[in-house]
Amino acid sequence: MDRTSLLQALRLKGVAPGSALVEALGAKASEIESRLSALEVEGLVQALPRGVRLTEPGHSALACALATERAGLERTAFEQIYQRFDAINGEFKRIVTDWQLRDVEGDQKLNDHSDPDYDRAVIERFEALHDRLAPLADAAGRHLPRLAVYAFRFARARDRVADGDPRYLAAPMIDSYHTVWFEFHEELLQASGRSRAEEAAAGRAD
Amino acid sequence: MLAPHVFPFDHPHALPAPALRALLGGKGAGLAEMTRGLGLRVPPGFTIATTGFHRYRRHGLDALRPELTAALARLESSLGLALGDPSRPLVVSVRSGAAASMPGMLDTLLNLGLNDETCEGLARATSPEFASACYARLIRMFGEIVMGVPRSIFGGDERASAAERVRRFRAAYQTATGEAFPQDPRQQLERAVEAVFRSWDGPRAVAYRAREGIDADLGTAVNVQAMVFGNREGISGTGVGFTRDPATGERIAYGDYLPGAQGEDVVSGTHATLPLSALREIDPGIHAELLATFDRLERHYRDACDVEFTVECGVLWILQARPAKRSAAAAVRIAVDMADDRDFPLTREEALLRVDPEQLRQALSSSRVSGSGAAIARGLPASPGVATGRAFFSADDAIAAADRGEPVILVRRETSPDDVHGMAVAEGIATATGGLASHAAVVARGWGKPAVVGISSLSVERDGAFLAGVAIEPGRVLTIDGGSGELFLDGNERAEDGPRPEVATLLAWAAQVLGPESRQLEPVVQLERARATLGATAREH
């Protein structure tokens, strides 16, 4: 686990408890712990009751590291990955929405998960979508090794859902598929030199 | 003379509704009702009935071909178009329609009738990019659904130009199936119809029927319908409308219109849409016709409806109409307004049966919200519930306030991953952008926190916001109603003004059913008992 990965994970999480970092970085708790202490000595991170966060110097250090990283990237490759991701982003969000909400006699109601056929159909769409997403996560990791962990995180969340824990589809604050997706999206925006606000305004990243 | 197996949508059926549904399937019965029963201008077409399915099973498609040919000829002449005509091509959709829907059934094939020649004809009437996109979609869907080719072989770069996709998809189709994509539109159509029939006996449908105890011999109908295009020359466009405001129930037509575009564009929210009223400036005649259609639909369904429509070269087509989704507050108001209107065919007793006790409970809580005044702004109701708190504009400020013990409404332009920890401490979430499937909405529902998204009158700065023109300082108290999408300044002042007038009216009607002493009951209980009494009476008759 490199320094940029850790700083970036902290930025993406805002305030991160150690357990979230373990999940997001695929590293050992002890290793993360010692890295964090070093960063704290440098004044780049700050420990709070809710977890660890970046300080202002930490944000600057990360911005520098990412700018350097971006300069060495193959822009067209990321442009392509982003566009392919964008093409399936809507379907993923529909799947998650269909998992949470259900059309009951013309009303959008929270899905009470009392209909196994309905839920199964949504999970089937989710699994088919994972098959389309996986090559993109692999490609991102090939072009930028720091991102290789996403392929692992996506697959782990998919497996947890398949093993009968559907919280790993969309629940916040755990390393659910939606959590990973949201962060991966942010990474791709950054790597392809876009801002979320602009993309949201164009209807692509809301 | 043999009984017919193929019926145009405007066929004068003399069957009671359940028998019609058994004959035409749910979708076909709906199309027949809209066309013949309501006299709406629905894109024309015909239904191959379930009796046709049985004939096909016994004798093959040859036995249906004469009727199919006749129905097609009638469809062509009614529109002045012809299947395969390079200059005026007829383009159709094929949809399955069993009496009950079931998984594994082939659902929809669009754009049948396009081939290399007719695609050029459609390109002249619309645009080359659009026509090629339709054609590419047909090749892919036909490959997947009719030929059983895996979707992945059509994968790759979704952003290639449409013409390029046509070339690639055709090559992929040929590689996978060993034959060229069929250029004969008539053959496309027949094979699509057969594919629907075959899907009835597909493994998933068979398994589902076995599990649910559905008769394997019911069979499915097939609907063939002309496609209309909202992006053609002249006055064309597409829209969705509600006959009443789905958030408040107010009796005004509400909706969006997107000039020169096809249906999916409106729903996906990627183009700027106009309010429905703008259609009046564009073409007063079409606008008036749409409003007249709204009125007819409401009287027919005796309920508020939502309507999908397309304008093609100055002609209004109704694609779908059904009772509308609505907020709890709107459900109460619509039922009361309709029953209160002497000209409207809904009785007070029916109004009581229309309102679910749960809706009343929600309407009571949202009527307390409006106790402090009218909503200042509105967005999309993304996650139900009412929340009051102090507005903060960054996740860090939200956390700081929460740590001070203050309830927080997190207000953001859009949300990014690092906002999630701020959302975690907030009572509710409000965003300027985004739809019901946005990340903010997904995360809020994951926690069961109230959220309103897509608030167009909200602009968020670094340390403040404007909501419908009102400056909102950090710490200003806001109330959001994630069930109706409404936002209110200040707190949720409880019950000072009593419930909204329509709630009082509804409860007065409940008291008429139950007797005056029922006024002592909790409102939700009162409604439940009135409904039980009415339901029991209705069963006795």
Q: How many domains of chain A, as an integer?
A: 2
Q: How many beta-strand elements of chain A? A: 5
Helical element count of chain B?
Answer: 19
Question: How helical, in percent, are the residues of chain A?
Answer: 55-70%
Strand order of the largest sheet of chain B: 11-21-20-13-14-15-16-12
Number of helices of chain A: 10
Broad shape of chain B: globular
| Mean pLDDT score of chain B | 86
Structural category of chain B: alpha+beta
* Major β-sheet strand ordering of chain A: 1-3-2
> In terms of quaternary structure, what is this?
heterodimer
Low-confidence stretches of chain B: 493-497
Beta-strand segment tally of chain B: 21
Describe the structure in your own words:
The complex is a heterodimer of chains A (206) and B (541). Chain A is built from 10 helices and 5 strands; from the N terminus they run H-E-H-H-E-E-H-H-E-E-H-H-H-H-H. Chain A is mainly alpha-helical. Chain A folds into 2 domains: 67 residues, Orthogonal Bundle (Arc Repressor Mutant, subunit A), CATH 1.10.10.10; 128 residues. In chain A, the strands form 2 sheets. Chain A has a 3-stranded antiparallel beta sheet with strand order 1-3-2. In chain A, strands 4-5 form a two-stranded antiparallel ribbon. In chain A, strand 2 and strand 3 form a beta hairpin. Chain A starts with a helix and ends in a 5-residue tail after the last helix. The mean pLDDT of chain A is 87. By secondary structure, chain B is α+β, with helices and mostly antiparallel strands. Chain B has 4 domains: 155 residues, ATP-grasp fold, A domain (Dna Ligase, domain 1); 87 residues, ATP-grasp fold, B domain (D-amino Acid Aminotransferase, Chain A, domain 1); 79 residues, no CATH class; 108 residues, Glucose Oxidase, domain 1, CATH 3.50.30. An 8-stranded mixed beta sheet of chain B has the order 11-21-20-13-14-15-16-12. In chain B, helix 15 links the parallel strand 13 and strand 14. Classes of the chains: A mainly alpha (206), B alpha+beta (541). At the A-B interface, helix 1, strand 1, helix 5, strand 5 and helix 6 of A face helix 15, helix 16 and helix 17 of B.
